[in-house]
Design brief:
Layout lengths: L1 E4 L2 E4 L11 E5 L6 H9 L6 E4 L3 E2 L2 E2 L5 H11 E4 L3 H4 L6 H12 L4 H14 L5 H4 L9 H12 L6 E5 L7 H18 L2 E5 L3 H7 L2 E6 L2 E7 H6 L4 H9 L47 E2 L4 E2 L8 H6 L1
Parallel strand pairs: 3-9, 3-10, 7-8, 8-9
Antiparallel strand pairs: 1-2, 1-4, 5-6, 10-11, 11-13, 12-13
Bound molecules: adenosine-5'-triphosphate, iron/sulfur cluster and magnesium ion.
Length: 313
């Protein structure tokens, strides 16, 4: 997939698959194209964004679908949870009113039956006294509770895919953990595919089955979580891993030298080249193509050149 916004190449080379029940993490520094990718799947990019490529949901193409179909897809087949739960809820209606309205928009059910269903959803997302919570307004709930309500409303139509973009950034650490466990439980119990976008590699290590690493609008590496953490292939992934403070060894935190990129015009080289300590002339001749082993993939022309380099990582 490619996405241009004005003269910015926000996404230049991203492709991934996700299957039912799977939990895929997307990581990468600020501006690497994570949210833009998520929004393109949801059809929520501004009109002036130019998206090319393909987004298939259960084999059907949804990229380029008309607004009405996209609205249906968003409501029924893809649920989404963003960082700011307060903004996702309407301050002047109770939680119950909002869930009932959304439920009745999807299902031909009475208000009473919708209330019952809403209470069950709140119970599923771990809110105590769900019937009482239904009578409350968003500002009467804590940040963690509000995010659970947003997750409940994303579940209304039993979606095949849930996209969560930094869903816990605004929450404190303990609540963060609970909300992530909840998303994980939903993937397992409902068989929904979940895409979790985060800056936090610790969160990824604890929650995700697979990880896609973005850099400069390119998916530079994708692998199962264990392989990615134990044996990264791409120099950027390796640098990310090195930047993680080791347990009990806080001094070893190592920042990646250089600044994040924003690609203007068209990407014509490896986006990581200006910061990569392995950069060589062939890295700037073209965007490295995808090397796919079937289980994992990466885009680095120098991986596999010899054992030496991988060990140096
Ligand atoms: N509405 C927009 N108009 C113009 N440029 C945009 C718009 N949204 C995103 N971009 C640009 O697209 C690129 C990718 O942005 P994106 O929001 O996807 O990054 P991100 O990986 O989600 O970063 P963060 O971790 O900070 O959320 C950036 O260069 C950004 O400046
Ligand atoms: S392609 Fe070259 S510049 Fe890019 S990550 Fe690999 S070695 Fe570094
Ligand atoms: Mg983002």
């Amino acid at each position: 997939m490619k996405i241009r916004i004005g003269d910015i190449a926000a996404v230049s080379g991203v492709s991934f698959d996700i299957i039912a029940g799977e939990f895929l993490g997307i990581v990468g520094e600020s501006g690497s194209g994570k949210s833009v990718t998520a929004r393109s799947i949801l059809g929520l990019l501004p009109k002036y964004a130019d998206v090319s490529g393909s987004v298939e949901l259960s084999g059907g193409e949804i990229l380029g679908a008309d607004r009405q179909s996209l609205r249906k897809i968003r409501g029924r087949r893809i649920g989404f949870v963003f960082q700011d739960a307060l903004a996702a809820l309407d301050p002047v209606y109770t939680i119950g009113d909002q869930l009932v309205e959304a439920l009745q928009a999807h299902l031909p059910i009475s208000r009473k039956a919708a209330m019952e269903k809403a209470a069950n959803l709140l119970d599923e997302v771990g809110l105590k006294n769900p019937r009482e919570q239904l009578k409350r307004y968003p500002h009467q709930l804590s940040g963690g509770m509000r995010q659970r309500v947003v997750i409940a409303s994303a579940l209304i139509a039993d979606p095949e895919l849930i996209i969560a973009d930094e869903p816990t950034t605004a929450l404190d650490v303990t609540v963060q953990k609970q909300v992530l466990q909840l998303l994980r439980r939903i993937a397992v119990n409902r068989g929904a595919a979940v895409i979790l976008i985060t800056h936090d590699l610790g969160v990824v290590a604890q929650t995700c089955d697979r990880v896609a690493v973005f850099y400069g609008g390119v998916l530079v590496e994708e692998a199962d979580t264990l392989s990615l953490f134990s044996k990264p292939h791409h120099p950027y992934t390796a640098a990310l891993m090195r930047s993680l403070p080791k347990l009990g060894d806080r001094e070893r935190f190592e920042a990646i030298p250089g600044n994040p990129v924003q690609i203007r015009g068209t990407l014509q080289a490896c986006p990581f080249a200006p910061r990569c300590r392995f950069a060589a002339p062939q890295c700037v001749e073209a965007v490295p193509s995808e090397y796919n082993t079937g289980h994992s993939k990466h885009r680095c022309v120098r991986v596999g050149e010899g054992k030496l380099m991988v060990e140096e990582l």
